[in-house]
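Same chain as my last thread, 696 residues:
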Amino acid sequence: MSKGIYVATIEPNSGKSVVVLGLMRMLLGKTAKVGYFRPIIEDLETGEMDNHINTVMSHFELDINYKKTFAYTRSQVLDLYNQGKSGEVLDEIIKKYKSLEERFDFVLVEGTDFSHENSSLELDINILISKNLGLPVIIVSQGDKKDFKEIVDSVQLAHNTFKQDVDVLSIITNKANPDDLSILKAQLKTRITNGTDITVIPKIPNLSSPTVKEISKALDGEVLFGHDMLNNLSESFSVGAMQLRNYLIRLKENALVITPGDRADIILGALQANISKNYPKIAGIILTGGLMPEETILKLIEGLSSIVPIISVKGGTYYVTSSIGHIKSRIYAENTEKITTSIAAFEKHVDTDKLADKLITFKSEVFTPRMFQYNLLQRALNDKKHIVLPEGYDERVLRAAARLINAHVVELTLLGEEDKIKELIEKLDIPLNTNEINIVSPTKSPHFEDYVNTFYELRKHKNVTLEMAKDTMTDVSYFGTMMIYKGHADGMVSGAVHTTQHTLRPALQFIKTKPGVNLVSSIFFMCLEDRISVFGDCAINPNPNAQQLAEIAISSAQTAKEFGIDPKVAMLSYSSGASGKGADVEKVREATDIVKTQGSDLKIEGPIQYDAAVDMRIGKTKLPDSEVAGHASVLIFPDLNTGNNTYKAVQRETGALAIGPVLQGLNKPVNDLSRGCTVDDIYSTVIITAIQAQNQ
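reply #2:
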């Protein structure tokens, strides 16, 4: 079940608030605790609250700290994007959303308002956010002053754009001509035929008209009278520049009177008309030119029993009239009439039972790299582990260490001479506080002699002498591995400078493999655009036999499960099913049978080609009865040559983030880096190592 819904619009003034208010009322009727989140809000004056947030929180009395209901202002996001820090934006949004998700049964997420020019960027940002939160989307558009073709074309384009990355549960077209509802809905359904719900809500005058309060705020006006009637709707407006007898016949119901501040005749005449049974009610009076009525007139008005809002503004009559014509209606916390009307309109035109059922049964198949990395970080934070980094003189290692310490995600030990490491940190201007890490020189460690003696006892049957043990323990890979063996660290990450053999040899000598495991193997977490795949073995075993390949598959599936990935294992080969012949494909077939006969309940398919494993259409064509074909999450390659080349090809051609190699099968976690690794690679590998240590 999804724990949230994302409401996105595709244009300004879409009436998105109607949908948000209606959804919130629906959700509160279905579940006890509903949260609300706006990833990006408009820029605000100091101390001012976002109107959307204030309206929803106030009306529904939500128990949420205001600062936790949004992540960034519009300017902050644009600034970070211009600095190339779009990933940082997503990370913070995911973090804030997840904190609400933990507190509430369901979270309603409201997208941006499209109130500025760069609509293509805004559309992309909303798609990216909803995708990385793993939420289905309701798209809101508006049909005011548009023909059918324009409405249908824009809705179909938006639907197709969102559908590439996220699930669209419903499309709601707002502000449609009341006479065209059935025709418009039919035309939308002929274009969008994949089962997405289509709803059309008519234009509602009460919601389209701004209040006097909104007009006053937009014009920076001074309210002279009628504070208690500022929520009056202004359904039209007219200028009182002619003689009163001629102007009175032009008054309309709920109209706004615009007149210079020195026109006492128009002011008093309009007020008298408002209380007369023979004339329509007016919404309020706008006094232009910064002119104030004379004291005697003000005193006369003050003595009236009923006074509509009278607002003084500084602009001239023509400018003010033009400005009022461009003011768009909004819904705000104090205007309960508009809120009630909005909820009623939503409930009248939206099939709420059907929508609620879709939300309850929805399960997202999308799992983005950002979601995966967030989950990794949270798991590591839950049980902080101690990781040793033997290559303390490498700049990348030091920069990764700074990030890890700043995130408070692990305890770290760097191996090397303390003075040299501190000198490098200062020289390279790395923001790493050495008081927050352990720096250990192997030969100066108080544990050095104990480590030497332990290694000697462990390896003397291999003709290792005490002197040889002492010399070996000066090696940072051996020293770091011994820290794990003795319980002074929980895991080790190395390989930025050293070879795989150098990193693994000590682990194989005395950390050894888990009970029942004969083979150390590796996987890469391939973080593709919309999913995480596990590739194994792409780093350790050159040409495994069938038994070894089966063990790699079982270990890789277990690793996937430990990291929250449902293992559906594809044993890759150059043919799918029973058609292929030859030693290589027979090895894969035998390995698949071994996994099945070991009593494993793994979902596994093999032999199978890569395209059939990951592409649903091809998978169903080649292996129509397979529950793995087209859905594989764990891909096992027949040999190192194939695996290593494939992971690098996928990484380079798709831009996928490859985390690994992650070693599996050892009693304690030791992970090997590529010598071409980046700071991000080291950071991610340390976090994964910490999580592996939690599972030991």
